[in-house]
Amino acid sequence: MSRDRKRTLNWYQINDSEAIARHLERMAERGWLLEKAGSTLWTYRRGEPGPVKYAAACFPEASVFDAAPTPDQETYADYCRAGGWELAAAYGPLQIFRATVPDPTPIETDEAAKLETIRRSMNKTFLLGFTLILASTGLNLWLRVESFRRGPLEFISRSSNLSLTLLLAGMTVYCAAFLLDYFIWLFRSRRAVERGGTCARVHTRARLWMGWALMALCALTLLGYLEDYAVPGTRWILLYAFGGVLLVLAASQVVLRLLKNLACRRRTTRTVFLITVVVLSVLYAASLPLLMLGTQRVRFLRMDQEPAYVHTNQTSSGGSCEVDVYRDPLPITLEALGFEVTEEDQCSYRAKTDRSPLATRTVCSQGPAEWSSDLPDLRYEACRIPWGWLRQLCWDLTVAPENSAAHYYGPDYAFPAEPPEGALEARRTENGRRYALLDREGVVLIYGSWDLTQAQVEIIWENARAFR
């Protein structure tokens, strides 16, 4: 960045005309004059510090897809120049002027006309975009809630799930609040103008604080993903996953600038720009799973640690299939439950712990990697949830028969079972191979590929609960 140039984020909307003028006048007092306005970034050039008067106005006929000012826009700029204003920068309908004389003539004196130009400009630019974003974030937030209902223990134990849900909720609230605030402002302004007054005051400061809060949520989401997935070699993939959106936006802006430099017609520029955004978005969305699947040493999809070794099974067609074998320490094993484990079974011992501010969940599994083995599979998970209300909610979602998520997407713990010592409640599936147990600290789930006995359940319960 040159010492004579400076860029800042733009948090202002078209109806923030007074706030825009105040901001630019404060920048001028520090020696920075507006040179270029964009959708997200404004560029300033260094000048002599001192008072400079600014004014922001709307010209709905202008478009961001215009290669050059239209004849009507030039006429409008000439009209303002005659009143003592020079065009400092423009982006679409937003026209920003800088005074050239001490007492310039006000640009907008008819409040009704001013309100109409703002309304038309907002309809063309921000309203459609914010409505689409609201629909998208609302849908994704609903999908996150459904994911929580299908697997509450796994969901709350991963910081990435919590931070992404928080970000989606923040974006949904931000877009909904913006739209609601704008329509309330429009309604109040119409009533004020009809009574001979001026347009209503815009809640600019609240919008600015909400914008910064949204950026903080983005940073929090990135930290949540780094906490869950930042094993060696994955950080660059995570940075691409989050930064890819910025790359798409930057590339689309480069294409837009190129089209405008080629002096293409507005319709052509708009069509090519929209096609570019769609194509780049599809490529970005498709590249993520390819990166994940194409990373050999980094197991991005599961974020596994490296296995102890890999066992190869021979298929009936003459091919082969590799299975990872782990040697993690487990609190309870098949051997302790009375099963004989031999070297031919190629038994894998696996333990994985996820932590978040809401829960700690440890999942242990043991089973043969050799396909011809008769050794059964064992899996149990212990989730510690400090918050009583959240613990009860997760339990209800896990075992309640009337819960469609538990019934269709997981085991149906519809049958009461005898609670082991220390358990508040116990439920099992009809075949007796899966158990869910609740105590004052959390939930323990047990999965066996055989009919578990009460003694085996109690052994697993005591050891898994201690390991939690």
Structural overview:
With 468 residues, this protein is of the alpha+beta class. 47% of the residues lie in helices and 19% in strands. It is built from 12 helices and 15 strands. A 7-stranded antiparallel β-sheet has the order 9-10-11-15-14-13-12, sandwiched between helices. The protein has a 3-stranded antiparallel β-sheet with strand order 1-3-2. A hairpin with a 3-residue loop joins strand 2 and strand 3 (41-46). Helix 3 (111-124) runs antiparallel to helix 6 (159-194), helix 4 runs antiparallel to helix 6 (159-194) and helix 6 (159-194) packs antiparallel against helix 7 (204-229). The longest helix is centred in the middle third of the chain and has 36 residues, at 159-194. The chain is elongated. The model is unreliable at 294-303 and 404-409 (pLDDT under 50).
Spatial strand arrangement across the major sheet: 9-10-11-15-14-13-12
The overall pLDDT average reads: 85
Shape category: elongated
Number of strands: 15
Radius of gyration: 31 Å
Assembly annotation: single chain
Strand content: 15-25%
Helix content: 40-55%
Q: Main beta sheet, described?
A: 7 strands, antiparallel
Contiguous helical run count:
12
Distance between the termini: 52 Å
Poorly predicted runs are: 294-303, 404-409
Element pattern in H and E = EHEEEHEEHHHHHHHEEEEEHHEEEEH
Which class of secondary structure composition applies to the elements? alpha+beta
